[in-house]
């Protein structure tokens, strides 16, 4: 029994290892994607993300890293996992069919210039292909994490990161790696308004008098606002909201304490 168990482990790890080198070449695009996504989110844009089954769980995971945080604390970023909207999913599926569960949400929440990221191991999910088409009709940039290409989802999106493995489990595992790496690049490329005052951290610094357009075409916004206390805040945030930044969060102090 021990030998067969070891065979299962070794077989899986062998498949994962064999995919890593070609995956690294594919994943090189995550640097640029992170730059574009950081510019979009810092300028008030939004990421919509969706998948089915295990890919739905990974879509929710990715959104949580942006709305919450990956490592260092920062302001929340706008990301919506369409597969987590259970009432919308069941209502749309019941009234319009399962193939429309994501496309209709894209039409509701998507805006020109926003980014739609779709995850599928096969790249053949009809509801994701329809979502991509809906996003492109709205002027969104449509990206995909898929398994090997060609596949219909890759064809429907503007760009794709295709994991070169025939094993669904390996594809999903490297999609999760891709989600973490993408979020890490987003944090690295965020402008100073989402980083600590005084220039610490990895965010880029923008002149206070220069509007921030980021990398997203058609997006622009006011320059970051600096409070008199030295805290850096995004434009439009109420004065009483103080952004948590690396090194300022005391985990041992109650928020309701003095």
Automatic annotation (TrEMBL):
GO molecular function per UniProt: carbohydrate derivative binding; isomerase activity
GO BP term (any one): carbohydrate derivative metabolic process
PROSITE patterns: SIS
Region (Disordered): 211-258
Top-rank lineage group of the source organism: Bacteria
Keyword annotations: Isomerase
Pfam families: SIS_2 (PF13580)
InterPro entries: GmhA/DiaA (IPR035461), SIS_dom (IPR001347), SIS_dom_sf (IPR046348), SIS_GmhA/DiaA_subfam (IPR050099)
CDD domains: SIS_GmhA
EC number(s) from the headed UniProt entry: 5.3.1.28
Enzyme class: isomerase
Residue span(s) of domain SIS: 37-196
Name this protein carries in UniProt: D-sedoheptulose 7-phosphate isomerase
């Amino acid at each position: 029994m021990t030998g067969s168990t070891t065979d299962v482990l070794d077989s899986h790890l062998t498949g994962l290892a064999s995919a890593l080198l070609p995956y690294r070449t594919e994943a090189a695009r995550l640097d640029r994607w992170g730059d574009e996504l950081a510019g979009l989110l810092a300028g008030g844009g939004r990421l919509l993300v969706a998948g089915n089954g295990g890919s739905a769980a990974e879509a929710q995971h990715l959104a949580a890293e942006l709305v919450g945080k990956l490592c260092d604390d920062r302001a929340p970023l706008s990301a919506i996992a369409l597969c987590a909207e259970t009432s919308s999913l069941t209502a749309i599926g019941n009234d319009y069919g399962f193939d429309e569960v994501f496309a209709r949400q894209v039409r509701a929440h998507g805006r020109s210039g926003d980014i739609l990221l779709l995850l599928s191991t096969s790249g053949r999910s009809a509801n994701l292909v329809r979502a991509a088409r809906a996003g492109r009709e709205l002027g969104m940039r449509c990206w995909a994490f898929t398994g090997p290409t060609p596949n219909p989802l890759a064809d429907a999106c503007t760009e794709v990161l295709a994991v070169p493995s025939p094993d669904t489990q390996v594809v999903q595992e490297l999609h999760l790696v891709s989600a973490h790496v993408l979020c890490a690049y987003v944090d690295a490329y965020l402008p100073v308004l989402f980083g600590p005052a005084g220039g610490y951290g990895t965010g880029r610094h923008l002149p206070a008098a220069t509007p921030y357009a980021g990398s997203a075409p058609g997006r622009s916004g006011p320059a970051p606002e600096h409070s008199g206390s030295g805290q850096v805040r995004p434009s439009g945030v109420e004065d009483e909201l103080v952004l948590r930044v690396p090194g300022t969060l005391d985990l041992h102090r109650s928020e309701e304490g003095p």
